[in-house]
Amino acid sequence: MLQSSIQRLQFAQEGFGESMLAVPRIPATSTNNQDNTLLVRLSSSMYVPGPQDYFKRKHDYIQIEIDKLQKVLYDKLLTRQQINGILQMHLQQQQQQQQQQQQK
Predict the structure, then answer these.
(1) Average pLDDT, whole number, for the chain?
(2) Domain residue limits at 18
């Protein structure tokens, strides 16, 4: 589940990265916008200036979230390995006890 969340975040991050690269290629139109500022649509009625900064912030934010999830995933992996080690140790102890009882 965490791995799929990381994959979805990476997919979104790629989209923001591609958008960051596309913004400089957009031709400036002086007829609609006097200072050539591009606006990013946040909702049906809200636009904000600076798509390059917007996409960079989103890209960086997603990277932080990916890093957090990867740490959680790594911690869970370590916990699983520790549990497996303990289970293996108990299983070996039981097998040794059974062998000792059979030898008596």
Answers:
(1) 85
(2) 2-26+35-77
